[in-house]
Every structure is written in C-alpha cells, then in structure tokens.
Amino acid sequence: MKRKFEGKEEYFMRNGALLLEKQIASSDGKGIPIRIFTAEELNKATNNYDTSLINSRIQSTVYKGNLDGQIVAVKTPERLQVSSYMINFFLNQAVTQIQINHKHVVKLLGCCLETEIPILVQEFIPNGSLANHITSNSVPISWSDRLHIATQIADAVTYIHCVNSNPIIHRDIRPNNILFDKNYVPKLSNFGLSVVIPPGKTAGCHDQIVDASKVEKGERVQSLAYATLALKCVQFKGEERPTMMEVAKELRRSKGIT
C-alpha cells in the first residue's frame, strides 16, 4: 500500500524554516547546504517502507534503502510520538552531522522535510552497534579491540571538539551510538542531543571501574591506565577533565604499555 504524506507542503515550510534557523545559529550564518529529498523519493527507495528492509529499531526505525543505486540508511520517526521535541531532535542531527566529515562519524547524506517529523538519510552502516556486540557475543571483546574502538571514537570526538570554529559536543556517547561499518570500523552516530558551542564558551580506583574477571593475564597494567584516564574524564570540575585531544593521545600512548 502506498504511503500518503498529508500536509507535506505545510510540513516542508515549517521544518524548512526551523532547519534554516538552526543552521544560522550553529554556524554563524554560514550553513552548509543539505540535500533535501522528497517524500516520494524515500518511499521509492524503501519500497514503500517495506518492513523486511528494517535494519534497526533502537531510538528510531532505520530502513535499508536504495537511492539511485546507492545503499543508504533512511532514519524515520516511526512509532515515535509527534512533538516539538522530536522535530528538534531530528533536525538537530541534520544540522550538526552535515558539518562533520570524519571517517569515524556516520555521514549525513540529506533529509526529507515533507513529513511531520523530518526523515534523515545517512550512509548505511550494516554491522550493528557496539551494544549489540557487547550483549550478543559469547566471547568478550578483547582488550586490544576495545582499545582500537576507544582510540578511533576518541579521534572522532577530538575532531568535532576541535576542528570547527564552533565545537560540537555530542552529549550521548554510549554503546548504542557507536556503529560498525562493513569492515567493522567504528563510527559515532545519533547527534540528536548534541549542542554547538558558540565562540568564547566552554563546554574510583581500578577495581571499582574494571571487572577483574574480564582482564586477561598481563593486561592489568594496561587496564589500570584506562581506568585512571576514565576517572579523569568524570571529574566534577570541567577544568580538571582532559580535553578529547589529550584523551586520544593518552589512548595511543597506552598501546605501548605491556
């Protein structure tokens, strides 16, 4: 059955105005153009939102789509209650992700404004989230793989904190929001809660943090270094916490600990 989009002109005007307002506020009036897809294009790309194409249903419903031969992820607000909060949540992702071009951040391709809550189109990430791998694998993720993932995500966070003139703070980094591409390269996703910082603004012991049963023989010194770094990252006072650049450097240095 073909899906109907009631009032799509009205939605387009309202969502377009909100998107422009957010772009101006987040980038000093120098917003990066976002490709706008029509509702019909996405309807066709997902075969009328065929449920067999659903890739995930965590915070939103993500379909595997095909746009002009390119496999994409169509991130929809299906099953979410319509509210100004949800409209802003999806638009916020569009405005922040379009500013980011990093190999460890999920790439935004565009959005659709003709639906009551906007729909996002992103690169397709096929191999699930870190949360999936933590909970579904009978074999624990090795320390070397954990360090590899942590280092690459730290690089991504360093980039969004430091490269743009207005830093982007993700505010929701957790296993569900770290995805793995076809080569199991980790990528940071879901920027719905992120904020852009205007110019001039700033954004227990080892055994209490690390499960000793998960630490293999010879890895305690390395895990202690990670636990110490983690404690620094959760200090109450912002000035006592390391920057993401310092975190990334420390993770890379830790690779040399044996």
TrEMBL record:
<keyword id="KW-0675">Receptor</keyword>
<dbReference type="InterPro" id="IPR001245">
    <property type="entry name" value="Ser-Thr/Tyr_kinase_cat_dom"/>
</dbReference>
<keyword id="KW-0067">ATP-binding</keyword>
<dbReference type="GO" id="GO:0007166">
    <property type="term" value="P:cell surface receptor signaling pathway"/>
</dbReference>
<protein>
    <submittedName>
        <fullName>Wall-associated receptor kinase-like</fullName>
    </submittedName>
</protein>
<dbReference type="GO" id="GO:0004674">
    <property type="term" value="F:protein serine/threonine kinase activity"/>
</dbReference>
<keyword id="KW-0418">Kinase</keyword>
<keyword id="KW-0547">Nucleotide-binding</keyword>
<dbReference type="InterPro" id="IPR000719">
    <property type="entry name" value="Prot_kinase_dom"/>
</dbReference>
<dbReference type="GO" id="GO:0005524">
    <property type="term" value="F:ATP binding"/>
</dbReference>
<dbReference type="GO" id="GO:0004713">
    <property type="term" value="F:protein tyrosine kinase activity"/>
</dbReference>
<dbReference type="InterPro" id="IPR020635">
    <property type="entry name" value="Tyr_kinase_cat_dom"/>
</dbReference>
<dbReference type="InterPro" id="IPR045274">
    <property type="entry name" value="WAK-like"/>
</dbReference>
<feature type="domain" description="Protein kinase">
    <location>
        <begin position="22"/>
        <end position="258"/>
    </location>
</feature>
<keyword id="KW-0808">Transferase</keyword>
<dbReference type="InterPro" id="IPR011009">
    <property type="entry name" value="Kinase-like_dom_sf"/>
</dbReference>
<dbReference type="Pfam" id="PF07714">
    <property type="entry name" value="PK_Tyr_Ser-Thr"/>
</dbReference>
<dbReference type="GO" id="GO:0005886">
    <property type="term" value="C:plasma membrane"/>
</dbReference>
<dbReference type="InterPro" id="IPR008266">
    <property type="entry name" value="Tyr_kinase_AS"/>
</dbReference>
